Amino acid sequence: MQSDRLDVLYFGAVDWSYTWQRPQQIASRLAAHGRVVYVDPVGLRRARLSDASRLVRRLRARDVGMAAPPAGLSVISGHAATLASGLRAPSEWTARLMVAAVRRALVEARIESPVIWAGTPSPAVVAALDLLPHRLLVYDCLDAVTAFRPGQLDVEAAEAALARRADLVLATSPELEARLRRGNARPVLVPNAADYDHFSRPVSADQIPAEIRALPRPIAGYVGEVGAWFDTGLVRRLALRHPDWSIVLVGPASSEARGALPDPNIHFLGRRPYSELPLYLAGFDCCLIPFRATPLTAAVSPVKLYEYLAAGRPVVSTPLPSVLPFAREVFVGADRRFLEAADEAVASRHDDRAAEARRRRARENTWDDRLDAILAALQGAEAEGAGHQARRAVR
Asked: How high is the pLDDT of residue 78?
């Protein structure tokens, strides 16, 4: 890089106060190398009545259990831009509202020419690029966003523009890497990972949360959002197959998911602080990744896979492309085979050698490793950009 300090303007794909995942993991580690301004996303679709509570929370810029930013990182929500985007104002208007807040934050952080990190293909972010100083542009492609937002041509165009303009394009899965390459980008594959030290730490029996310690065992658990990609039908079959088991779901859940899983041995616990997640995993006899087979999940890199492995727990997953390379450590199956795999996983829960093999695989996939790869890629991108400038000067 041009200097030892790496200042970053990070347009996050999720609110800083939301479930802790890739954007917060990477941004918090970048803060050890310079100053970081993290911008909560302004959204990719028109606001709905059901979004009211979320919009109010974001306008207030606070959340219960919000993880405090590390030293060197500040978070802004861009209140006016959040409202404008939800009301589907033109992206140029939203961009100008957002840029005003961003410029103030950059001045306060004493950042003059940051690396701009785009973690979401927001039309407003693309429109803001020409209004903000920056030395490099990074597009971090987390998901098949067009599968999330089918038919939103402005989002598709924004992603194409980001991939075309970016000095560095990152992809979380081979499927995303291949798609971006077909669009003439040269992506670098940087899958998700785990905070190994956080999830592998020993947990005593009395530290396991009382709300699951009291449940009938065995416990098959899931940590993460219970959304459209979650196979409620498959999980219900597991609950009916084993009425003596407890199925524990830790994370926000849609009303549709709650309605589809009414069984008494299925327990929706809602969100829990990131700091407490290892305690819940320690109380699980097996961990679940019950995702549907869709274009979205074909390109996903589940953070929970690495966190489950770091905790040493048996893992049962549907056959996602990103999970198949871990078939030695993970029980993989679709439909009936998934149910049988859950039986096998629970039966193996006391196998210490298998648990250590899972932890060993997680140690090979940490966020610190991912950051090293990203920093090397940034150095390469900046060197390549300097080379292009030198060649233009010679001409």
From this structure: 55
Query: At 269, is the secondary structure helix, strand, or coil?
Result: strand
> What residue has token string 């974001």?
58
Q: Give bridge partners of residue 24 from the DSSP assignment.
A: none
Tell me how far apart the alpha carbons of residues 341 and 353 are, in angstroms, rounded to a whole number: 18
State percent of the chain over pLDDT 70.
Answer: 85
CA distance 267 to 277: 16
CB-based contacts of 288: which residues, under 8 Å, 6+ apart?
220, 221, 222, 235, 315, 316, 317, 342
Cα 295 to Cα 305: distance, rounded to the nearest angstrom = 19
pLDDT tens per residue across span 202-224? 999 999 999 999 999 999 999 99
Asked if 184 and 149 touch (Cβ cutoff 8 Å), the reply is no
What is the number of helices (H) and of strands (E) in the chain? 18, 13
pLDDT band at 98 (very low <50, low <70, confident <90, very high): confident
Q: Give the count of beta carbons closer than 10 Å to the beta carbon of residue 321.
A: 15
CA-angle at 81, arms to 17 and 98, nearest 5°: 90
Rounded CA-CA distance 140/127 in Å is: 17
| CA Rg value for the chain | 22
pLDDT tens-digit map of 279-298: 999 999 999 999 999 999 99
CB 33 within 8 A of CB 6: yes
The DSSP call for residue 162 is H
Q: Which residue has the higher pLDDT, 384 or 118?
A: 118
What are the chain's domains? 8-193+366-394 (3.40.50.2000), 196-363 (3.40.50.2000)
Tell me how far apart the alpha carbons of residues 373 and 204 are, in angstroms, rounded to a whole number.
35
Task: Provide the pLDDT for residue 392.
Answer: 35
pLDDT score at 95: 86
For residue 149, the model assigns a pLDDT of 61
How far is 224 from 304, CA to CA, in rounded Å? 7
Tell whether the torsion through CA atoms of 134, 135, 141 and 146 is positive or negative. positive
Q: 321 phi and psi, to 5 degrees?
A: -55, -35
